[in-house]
Structures are given as structure tokens and as C-alpha cells.
Request: fold
Amino acid sequence: MKRTGFAPRKTPMKRSRKPSPQAIRIEPDAFRAVVKAKTRSDHLAELQDAFNAWVRLRDAGQPCISCGRPYGDRWHAGHYRSVGSEPSLRFEPDNVHLQCPPCNLHLCGNQAPYRVNLVKKIGLERIEWLDGPHEPKKYTVAEIQEMKAFYRAEIRRMKREAA
Ligand SMILES: [Zn+2]
Reply:
């Protein structure tokens, strides 16, 4: 017999069993699997958050590195060498300083005065090192996690000391 179109199955599909409480509880192994399932870019984004928060704490109370505007709320961690131009300096503390949102977002980092004020802050020698050529850096996930843990611990320590 030629079958056309939809034909009901001879044996009805078994109804799936209700999951038992044990089955739906998240086991430690499953939890670890979820943690592991984070991608490298997830870890990088988390590290960037921790690092930026650390920069904001380190520089809290200081004026904008570019325009000198007095310290404000919700300020940015602004790169001297942009992540695009020098990715290996993305997490270099000397390369990132507190910046007001207009300089960071609307003036593309307001680079010329940034450099002038950075000379005063960290000295010419360290800036010339930032300016100089850099080896490309490719962090492993383990290194990224280690750095993230370091900055998170530093943030806790600085907040404790400030309290
Ligand atoms: Zn500014």
C-alpha cells in the first residue's frame, strides 16, 4: 500500500517520564560543565569588567586623564593605546586610566591631551614603552581566569581598606 501524507504511527510514542527530583537537581559535575561552556570571549569580557572596575578604584577621585574635568560618577576606564591599535596592552595598567565619558566616547579617547597628562602621571619612560612595539599576546582561558581572580581580589582588598 502506498502511503501518502501523514500516517499515524502504529505504536504511540511513549510519554516521557516526569523527571525525578534527582534528575533535575543540578549536580556539581553539570555545574562545572556549564562553567566550562563559557567561551573564551565570555571570560575576556568578565576580565575586562573586573579590570575596568579596578582602574576606576585605583584612579577614584582623580580628574579625567584627558581634559582634567573633576572626577564624576560612571566614569570610564579609557585606553591610551586603543584595544584596536594595540591589543596586547588591553590589560596593561599603565595603558588605562580614568576618563570622562565625553572624552572616552565622543572624542575617541581625546588622545593628545591624554598623552600630555600621562607623561605627568607615569613619566616619559613608561609612555615610550607603551608607544613602542609589542609582542602579540594571546592569553589562554586559564590565564584570563587567573587575571580575573587577581583583579577581583584586588578590588575586594581596596574596598576593605577604603571602608
Ligand atoms: Zn575628559
Q: What stands out?
A: Residues 64, 66-67, 69, 99-100, 102-103, 110 surround zinc ion (CB under 6 Å).
